[in-house]
Write a structure and sequence with these properties.
Layout (H helix, E strand, L loop, with lengths): L7 E2 L2 E9 L3 E8 L4 E8 L1 H4 L2 H15 L9 E6 L4 E6 L4 E2 H6 L5 H20 L12 E3 L5 E3 L23 E2 L13 E2 L5 H4 L6 H17 L9 H10 L12 H7 L11 H13 L16 H4 L1 H22 L8 E5 L6 E2 L8 E3 L5 E9 L2 E11 L6 E4 L2 E6 L5 E6 L4 E5 L6 E4 L5 E6 L4 E6 L7 E4 L6 E2 L9 E9 L5 E8 L6 E7 L4 E6 L3 E6 L3 E6 L2 E8 L4 E10 L12 E3 L5 E4 L9 E6 L4 E3 L6 E7 L5 E7 L6 E7 L4 E4 L6 E7 L5 E7 L3 E7 L7 E2 L11 E7 L5 E8 L2 E8 L6 E5 L6 E6 L5 E6 L6 E6 L7 E3 L5 E6 L5 E6 L7 E8 L5 E2 L3 E5 L4 E2 L11 E3 L5 E6 L9 E5 L1 H9 L3
Antiparallel strand pairs: 1-2, 2-3, 3-4, 4-6, 5-6, 7-8, 8-9, 10-11, 12-62, 13-15, 14-15, 15-16, 16-17, 18-19, 19-20, 20-21, 22-23, 23-24, 24-25, 26-27, 27-28, 28-29, 30-31, 31-32, 32-33, 34-35, 35-62, 36-37, 36-61, 38-39, 39-40, 40-41, 42-43, 43-44, 44-45, 46-47, 47-48, 48-49, 50-51, 51-52, ...
Helix pairs in contact: 4-6, 4-9, 6-8
């Protein structure tokens, strides 16, 4: 099925043809929903029309989609039209390994790191029982930064063996059979890279990949294949019969290759991980790089002349030996990539605004947070993973924003109550530090034993508190006159020279910039425009996030100035529109980061029935954060991040017309929509220099109307609407001022004075919503430790109070008739479900025991601690369906990745300091 540029295949616009192979044609395409370029492989008609083949292929594709590794090209999904099927894959820029080999022999110091990355990809797949079966240079991409990506993992080619045996053997000459993909009697793979058992048509296992790996490495080092022939038949005969010449293979590599290229698979290396370790050892101990010596071979002239020149060079050896030893590669300078999987069902990371990971100064330990369940990102646990241990250790069941002390002896974090605490690296009882960081936005512990942190409180910028405890002091405050909204994500420079941090722009000047606070002068200035979350790396670099990748620039610590221009240094790091980037760098140059998992921009909404079955809306994918269903169920108001800095807008989805229309147009963040009872307008939160509630017509006409008359709105960290009285005259709001969440009401007539309904400063209260008859107020409170759903009388909230959920529960929602109260119930904090209590009408509030209707599937983005105000859960009028935000297809659990000695790679890309 040939496609021309500009043609459409489902949601994909064809940009250019990239090539073709046995399975089909490959195109560069634009995903019009997610606004990214992908590789689209259109399957052969003979393949796509074979139902049995397609079923096998789809099952295998689902398995392969679970492969989440930095050196494996990701499979995003399958796309089908009425005429063809296509595989949607990650588009990897750069040359293939075949292109690199075609330019000449690859030096051993370059070949080993490339081969090591290939081995890591194979190792990750083999651990999941997946064999590539067609490893060859054309299936390996090498990006400009040296990162390797292995393509076509485990997907057997399907071109039939027509006249291949008489043709030439090229890098794309693949032989296949229509029989089972991994069964005996099948010849599969590219002839020049086939193992002997493949060539014979025998059943294969992971040792076939080890053979192909050996052929790849041989070809890199010599520029030609060890087994070659003019035809496929000749090549297969060479594989089965010939022994290659080892003259041009470096001596230190020969033992590895000999074990990989054993014709008897029983004598071959059994695990590709063993080859990787041997390669890394070989790189650390260079030895001879020439041909292997033989006893009968004449000695070279220099060896025969050695006795004569020995006395001449002796002095030079004394001087030069030290230089050689200094320049000699050593194991502690070898760049190594590690992937640390976290035990399921927890999910690494989980907060869109925090520092979710930190690495110890010596690079030997990583602290990170994980969500207790994939659908509840508010319950975070703090883990410590030592690189010499197989499993992480739980440090705290309720903590966030980890950070290490400068001496590496302590792990700091933020408690649930917002206080900063620390715990010894060896474990023990946490020690309180103090401060107040209910909504932390970055923390750094300097070598001057001071801790600098930031919060979501717009009234403050960078704060400093002594590590031993005490009163915090404010170092900076956002300058509203200069278009600044907040100062966040600090990183204290060595010797107390200053602090790197991020300036968040206001609504009028959106964007984020890397700034520098000078400790000597007490002033700050913009250092790098269009960047966020900076980190200093010795001996002189600044690494920061920009547009979903890490950038780096040389930095003079003495002059506090950047040197040269920034360059991209790493893709695949988890970044957020808030400016948060999940990475940390040790003093010794080790990098730790949380890889990008689920594409946040790939969300949609889905209905779940009472059995938990999903029906996605026809809504185009986007970065949807919050939503609300209109009372009649005809429309959905949504908040969607624009991924253009600190920006989000309000949109309306029409269930009837199947259209999406924008409602808010002003710059800034607009979120947490809530319909008025008559369905004509939407209340929402708008944050510019401060946060306040606004009301706007649902058709987008007119100007937004301020709902609050609050002089100190710039001091208000957050305010969100949660519900109305049935007559629409009274609005309930959740308001956080400082560290306390309160429930207040605002009358829409008169002075619009705020009246406190629930405002106990010792705990959080929120998600308030009144029953349809106006008599009962349901809300969430953590007064007993865990959040639970309560009901009070209304409007007099002191006349009666009942706890309706038995344990951890959030997000109450009334049915249309008021006879049911729904909420998300999660007693173990790991198996959330939609639950309901039956409510009986009468002079007193009477209700049944909670009944769980269905468990929430892992594809659903769950409900945070008290966030029915952000509309992450709603109920249809008949109470038979429930609306949730749904993550896109290809759900990927992110891992913690570690790059040992990453500073070496940084020096190569940016330039040595």
């Amino acid at each position: 099925m040939a496609l021309s540029p500009g043609a459409r295949f489902g949601a994909f616009e064809i940009l250019a043809k990239l090539g073709e192979g046995g399975m089909g044609e490959v195109y560069r395409a634009r995903d019009t929903k997610l606004h990214r370029d992908v590789a689209l492989k259109i399957l052969l008609e003979s393949f796509a029309s074979d139902w049995d083949r397609m079923m096998r292929f789809e099952r295998e594709a689902k398995t392969l989609a679970s492969l989440n590794h930095p050196h494996i090209a990701q499979i995003y999904g399958l796309e089908q039209s009425s005429t063809a099927s296509a595989l949607v894959m990650e588009l990897v820029e750069g040359d293939t390994l075949a292109d690199r080999v075609a330019r000449g022999v690859v030096p051993v110091e370059e070949a080993i790191p490339l081969a090591s990355q290939i081995a890591k990809a194979l190792e990750a797949a083999h651990e999941q029982g997946i064999v590539h079966r067609d490893l060859k240079p054309a299936n390996i991409k090498v990006r400009a930064d040296g990162t390797v990506k292995v393509l076509d993992f485990g997907l057997a080619k399907t071109a039939e063996p027509t006249a291949a045996s008489a043709g030439s053997v090229s890098g794309v000459a693949t032989i296949t059979s229509p029989t089972l993909m991994t069964g005996a009697g099948m010849v599969l793979g590219t002839a020049a890279y086939m193992s002997p058992e493949q060539a014979r048509g025998n059943a294969v296992d992971k040792r076939a990949d080890i053979w192909a790996f050996g052929v790849l490495l041989w070809e890199m080092l010599t520029g030609h294949r060890p087994f070659a022939g003019d035809t496929v038949s000749d090549t297969l005969a060479a594989v089965l019969r010939d022994d290659p010449s080892w003259d041009h293979i470096p001596e230190r590599i020969q033992p590895i290759l000999r074990r990989c290229l054993q014709k008897d698979p029983r004598q071959r290396l059994r695990d590709i991980g063993d080859a990787r370790v041997l390669l890394e050892d070989a790189l650390a101990s260079p030895g001879s790089t020439g041909r292997s010596s033989a006893a009968a071979r004449p000695q070279p002239l220099w060896r025969r002349a050695m006795p004569v020149v020995a006395s001449v060079v002796a002095t030079g050896l004394v001087v030069g030996g030290a230089t050689w030893m200094a320049a000699r590669p050593s194991p502690d300078r070898l760049v190594q990539h590690l992937s640390l999987a976290h035990p399921q069902p927890e999910v690494v990371g989980g907060n869109d605004f925090d520092d979710n990971i930190a690495v110890s100064p010596d690079g030997r330990s990583v602290a990170y947070v994980a969500a207790a369940t994939s659908v509840n990102s508010n319950i975070l646990r703090l883990y410590l993973r030592r690189l010499d241990r197989r499993e992480p250790v739980l440090l705290s069941a309720t903590a966030r924003s980890p950070f290490f002390s400068a001496d590496g002896q302590w792990v700091g974090f933020v408690e649930n109550n917002g206080h900063l605490s620390k715990v010894p690296l060896t474990g023990g009882t946490p020690v309180a530090i103090g401060g107040r960081a209910n909504a932390p936005r970055g923390i750094s512990w300097g070598d001057d034993d001071g801790i600098v942190y930031a919060t979501a409180d717009l009234a403050t910028g960078l704060m400093r508190i002594p590590a031993a405890g005490g009163e915090p002091t404010m170092l900076t405050k956002a300058d509203v006159s200069k278009g600044e909204a907040d100062h966040v994500f600090p990183d204290v420079l060595p010797r107390g020279r200053g602090i790197l941090f991020t300036i968040i722009g206001s609504a009028s000047t959106p964007g984020s910039h890397v700034a520098l606070f000078d400790s000597k002068t007490g002033t700050y200035r913009v250092l790098i425009r269009d960047g966020t979350h900076p980190k200093y790396v010795a001996p002189g670099y600044v690494v920061y996030a920009r547009a979903g990748s890490l950038q780096a620039v040389a930095f003079d610590l003495d002059r506090l100035e950047v040197v040269g221009s920034p360059v991209p240094v790493l893709e695949g790091v988890q970044t957020r529109p808030s400016g948060a980037a999940a990475f940390g760098i040790a003093s010794n140059g080790t990098l730790a980061y949380i890889e990008r998992g689920v594409a946040e921009e790939n969300r949609t909404l889905a209905w779940l029935d009472r059995q938990g079955r999903e029906t996605p809306l026809a809504l185009q994918a986007g970065y949807y954060v919050s939503f609300a269903l209109s009372r009649d169920g005809s429309n959905v108001a949504l908040s969607r991040n624009s991924n253009a800095g600190n920006q989000s807008e309000i949109w309306v989805w029409s269930n009837e017309r199947q259209t999406l229309s924008r409602v808010s147009f002003e710059p800034g963040t607009h979120e947490a929509p809530l319909w008025t009872p008559d369905g004509k307008s939407i209340a929402y939160t708008s944050c510019q220099t401060g946060c306040s509630l606004y009301l706007r017509r649902a058709d987008g006409t007119g100007s937004p109307e301020a709902l609050q008359n609050v002089k100190d709105k710039a001091q208000r960290a957050q305010v969100l609407a949660s519900g109305w009285t049935p007559d629409g005259r009274l609005l309930f709001e959740e308001q956080r001022l400082g560290g306390s969440w309160d429930v207040k009401s605002v009358a829409l007539s008169g002075s619009r004075e705020e009246v406190a309904l629930l405002s106990d400063p010792s705990y959080r209260e929120g998600a308030a919503t009144v029953s349809p008859d106006g008599r009962w107020l349901a809300y969430v409170s953590n007064e007993s430790g865990a959040p639970k759903v309560y009901v009070r009388t209304f409007p007099d909230t002191s006349a009666g109070k009942w706890q309706v959920s038995s344990d951890f529960a959030t997000t109450p929602k009334w049915s249309t008739d008021g006879h049911q109260l729904y909420f998300v119930d999660s007693p173990k904090q790991s198996d959330p479900a939609v639950a309901v209590v039956e409510v009986q009408a009468g002079s007193t509030f009477s209700f049944s025991r909670p009944r769980r209707l269905f468990n929430l599937p892992p594809t659903v983005r769950g409900v945070s601690l008290m966030r029915n105000f952000s509309g992450e859960f709603d109920v249809s009028r008949d109470g038979q369906q429930f609306l949730f935000v749904r993550n896109g297809e290809g759900l990927v659990r992110p891992n913690v990745n570690v790059v040992l000695n990453w500073a070496v790679e940084l020096a190569r890309l940016v330039g040595r300091r």
